[in-house]
């Protein structure tokens, strides 16, 4: 496998507006927040940045708005060395934004306004075919229209490209349309919404993963936050434990997991090593405030991996 694999991300680009406070306002109430942070986000963009920082070449396929955030988002991609050739501006539409509210424990609540992300179409995917056909992996999320996601899954299958679907935010899924993806990776709340099954324990997660496999998914990974992740396929169902860190902001941890996993797999690492590495990369992202700017470089990550001996 190439030393620097090419990861293509078809998905969302937002601007994150993060507020930190001890309490949240009641209806009709105005309160003062403790701190505010503005940064580039969106699940697709976050995953692209994570993959880039992990050492891959990355191309982004996305739509941004014709407002002050649109050109700035494209410039941010370019400054990070991400190919933004197929990041286009949707005229007369706002960029996607995500107001994020973080409590003292680091847990977050997020409202996503899709804006230009909702205009990303199958035609945009077809236009990006010269990039996509060269990719070692294609990553998708649910912050863009599902018809675009389904179209891209078919494209990946037809061209023999590894495809990772992150069904976030959760919404009803046509399992036949995503069943050919190599990996289907929800977190526990997304798995609950998609399957209608509770995911409160490891046993619950196993039952949920079994259900998803019966619907035709090739491999299922349910991310479980501080408990790690559950990997399931026809050959095994295994809990991959988390690494212990001092978390200050969990925003973007799932995206760090997805982006880094795509790189580790594309570099030829077996799943048995790629998943623990992605667990650590995601955990490390929670030790800093923000999303993209909380992600570790490959050098920083490898140092931490060595320090921990690849173990808990």
* Order of helical and strand elements: EEEHEHEEEHHEHEHEHHEEEHHH
* Fraction in helix: 25-40%
CATH domain fold name: UDP-N-acetylmuramoyl-L-alanine:D-glutamate ligase
Radius of gyration: 18 Å
Explain what this protein looks like in three dimensions:
The chain is an alpha/beta fold. The protein has one domain: 3-Layer(aba) Sandwich (UDP-N-acetylmuramoyl-L-alanine:D-glutamate ligase), CATH 3.40.1190.20. Helix content is 35%, strand content 22%. It has helices spanning 43-53, 69-79, 122-127, 129-132, 146-158, 175-178, 188-195, 202-214, 253-266, 271-285, 298-307; strands spanning 6-10, 14-20, 35-41, 57-65, 83-90, 96-102, 108-110, 137-141, 162-166, 183-184, 220-223, 229-232, 237-240. Strands 5-4-1-8-9-10 form a 6-stranded parallel β-sheet, with helices on both faces. Strands 3-2-6-7 form a 4-stranded mixed β-sheet. It has a 3-stranded antiparallel β-sheet with strand order 11-12-13. Strand 12 and strand 13 form a beta hairpin. Helix 9 packs antiparallel against helix 10 (271-285). The two termini are 28 Å apart. The relative contact order is 0.15. The mean pLDDT is 94.
